[in-house]
Specification:
Elements (H helix, E strand, L loop, with lengths): L2 H42 L3 H14 L15 H5 L10 H6 L18 H13 L5 H12 L2 H17 L17 E3 L6 E2 L5 E2 L3 E5 L4 E3 L4 E9 L3 E8 L3 E11 L8 E2 L4 E5 L16 E9 L4 E4 L2 H13 L1
Antiparallel strand pairs: 1-4, 2-3, 4-11, 5-10, 6-7, 6-9, 7-8, 8-10, 8-11, 11-12
Helix pairs in contact: 1-2, 1-5, 2-7, 6-7
Length: about 325
């Protein structure tokens, strides 16, 4: 074996090993996360899928994950320690006297703001103050986040987790079946004129009338109906706080309605050329799927370019 081959092997082999480890890490981590959620459900009777959904939502809105922790929920210091505990003492008695919500979840007598079990137990206890029925949990979440979209997102993530009885839901799919002809390029940010000057907030995938359109990620249907810009359109919010917008459709899958839980690969409608006018307007442009993605960071929601995601999902789907 030449030195050149050995050198290439030494460079490439560690890369594949690191990729294999990375691919295995997430399911193993999810197993540990699910275990702690179910442990807290046993202690507090708050459904595990709501605790998991809160944690997933918090993970979605973070810029960086603390690798030393298993869960992503952060509780602010004033809320945790209480307003009359400026030294941030962790004894539960002191925190309670100071009107803090921090509690001991692992039995060591301390309420530590960076301890996963303490944080999750404290969050669950916050919820139980309102009750453990679904409506009670929604009220608790509203009083914690004070934002309707945050509550809605957590509720939807919880519904998905409950439906599939797992948090291992990383799969994705390309929205057009490969047996159909299609073409697309990056069109996000291009100028559009209908309804006033604006930018194109998505990627157009051109295909024939009636070509099936598939869901790309796990999520919940938020909108089904007509929009004068997008025509017949469907909106699905996934478990990553991303809203997926499927527009200019020819029609919807029979029975599809708001609140339905969707998985990657589910056929939700078909390609058309509807839009740019009142309900029923069609044919003002070639048939295509307008695919848009909108991210929520816990404060606001904005459009971003879906093209890199579509390319990755296309590659992954073809590799299967």
């Amino acid at each position: 074996m030449s030195k050149k081959i050995i050198l290439i092997f030494c460079i490439i082999f560690p890369y594949f090993i690191s990729q294999a480890i990375a691919n295995e890490k997430e399911p193993e981590e999810n197993t540990d996360r699910l275990a702690i959620f179910k442990k807290m459900e046993a202690l507090t009777h708050v459904p595990w899928y709501y605790l998991a959904a809160i944690d997933q939502y918090e993970s979605n809105i973070k810029k960086e994950k603390d690798e030393s922790r298993l869960i992503s929920i952060d509780i602010s210091e004033p809320l945790w320690f209480g307003v009359t505990n400026p030294d941030h003492l962790t004894q539960t008695e002191i925190i309670q006297i100071s009107d803090g919500i921090g509690l001991d979840g692992n039995g060591d007598g301390l309420a530590e703001i960076t301890n996963d079990e303490d944080v999750l137990y404290s969050m669950a206890h916050w919820i139980t103050n309102y009750g453990i029925a679904e409506q009670d949990i929604k009220i608790a979440l509203w009083n914690y986040y004070n934002r309707a979209l945050s509550v809605k997102s957590i509720e939807q993530i919880a519904t998905v987790y409950k439906t599939f009885d797992t948090i291992n839901l990383e799969e994705s799919d390309f929205p057009i079946p490969f047996q159909y002809n299609y073409t697309y390029r990056s069109t996000w940010g291009d100028a559009r004129g209908f309804g006033g000057r604006r930018i194109h907030e998505g990627t157009d995938i051109f295909a024939s009338y009636g070509t099936p359109v598939k869901a790309s990620r796990y999520g919940v249907v938020e909108i089904v109906g007509w929009n004068r810009f997008g025509g017949w359109r469907i909106g699905i919010r996934d478990i990553y706080n991303t809203y997926h917008y499927y527009a200019h459709l020819n029609g919807f899958t029979e029975g599809l309605s708001v609140g339905d839980v969707i998985k990657p690969g589910d056929v939700i409608g078909s390609v058309g050329s509807s839009g740019y006018g009142p309900p029923g307007t069609s044919g003002k442009f070639p048939p295509h799927l307008h695919y848009g993605m909108y991210k929520d960071n816990g404060y606001s929601e904005w459009s971003f370019d879906p093209y890199p995601y579509l390319k990755r999902w296309e590659r992954q789907a073809k590799s299967k």
